[in-house]
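Work package 3, deliverable 3.1, input record:
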Amino acid sequence: MEIAINQVYKSFLLNGEKIPVLDNISLTVPHGQCTALLGPSGCGKSTLLSMIAGFYPPDSGSITTTGKVSLCMQKDMLLPWRDLLANVCLPVEINDRSELAAAKERAKSYLPLFGLEGFAHSYPSQLSGGMSQRAALLRTLMAGGDFWLLDEPFAKLDALTREEMQSWLLGIIQRFQPGVLLITHDIEEAIKLADQIHVLSRRPASLIATFTPPAAGDENGISLLKEQIHHCLAING
Amino acid sequence: MKLSPKSSRKDLLYPLAGIIIFLLVWQLVASFLINKEWLLPTPGAVIVAFGENLPLIWHHSLYTLAEAGLGMILAVIVSLGIALLMALSPAIKKTLYPLLLGSQMVPIIVLAPLFIIWFGYGTLPKVLVVILICFFPMTINILAGLNAADNETLSFYRSMGMNDKQLFRMIRLPLALPHFFSGLRISAVYSVMGAVIGEWLGAQAGLGLMLIRAQNAFNLPLVFAAILAIIIWSALIFGLVKIAESRCLKWRKYLNDEK
């Protein structure tokens, strides 16, 4: 299973003017790995993700996905009138209601792992920002996708919570082994979580480099990579 | 937001103070400046008239309340129907919008006598006036609520696998519910007044008829007692709607809590 993105171009019309957003992007997201798309804010990363999710097609080129994708956005997208359990089981509810009871049991068993124990019947407005985002990820898991498309899932959180969430997410990814496409503008986040990092330029985004982060303990390698990425964003970004 | 006992006491204090000051000024003006009961009765005289005529007020209230209640229920049905149609089809929305607005621009005081000419002195013309007054705020609010979901949200749930029917039932309809209640609250305030206007122009019973009879008899304490009854009933209906609202929108009470 993989997501194959092949020579994708995309532009949008803004006030009658054609704004190119993606410029010949080709890359592959393999299953069982975390692939990061790193680029400056507003470069068009989310546009690519939206096309993988099927919101709209590319102008040219192709995106082929084998396996099911499920999406997790920057906003938690929890429905305020549903309690946590009903929110995270929504993907099951809309696709096969007969599975709902079993799904609720399964979701309940995941609550401790997602730091949401005791909140099964809380409304989203009663959850903290970090909890809401973890609930959104639990919903992504419950959707049963082979690939998780994570669109800057922690961008709205404060720095401290974000770091905690990154370490936590690493554990979740290792446990469930989905294919992950992580969109981020945070270099450290990409290095910490991804097996492979694709760096995109400023808009119109094109692929400028691909890196494979060193092992977690290799401080020298990590700081070297950080420098390399900074350098390549400074030149092409 | 959870209210501390202190702030909830304050919440009661201010409106209460406003009412007391109003009554005090009224009492002073009525008893010292004017001092003619047939011109402006004192609040005390109004209370006395209210107490003495309680059976009469009760009798007429039943008619008015029946008209207001029936009108409200029908207005809910009408506004739900219109708003749904308008939300589902832009063509219908464009067609109906000027008619909707127009319906609110014709003075009720002109329409009500026409209703009486067409439908007689019974209940129907009063109910029609109530519907005409009440359906508009609800229709506009429900429509706004049904269109409140942004594209990002709809795309997200569509990618989750929702079809249009599910989007409507699980996203747009619940999103419209708070808007519906905002409209219903406005309608609740106007409903009794609408029925009274209907009765004012010709009726066999009701607070409006009672008002006009008392006025013709220069029984101003009774006029004010009838007004008091209208206020009490309107406030009660408003309160009922508020209770229904907080029951239906339980999740909302946490919205103002600190995140």
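Chain B has two domains: 1-35, 43-254.
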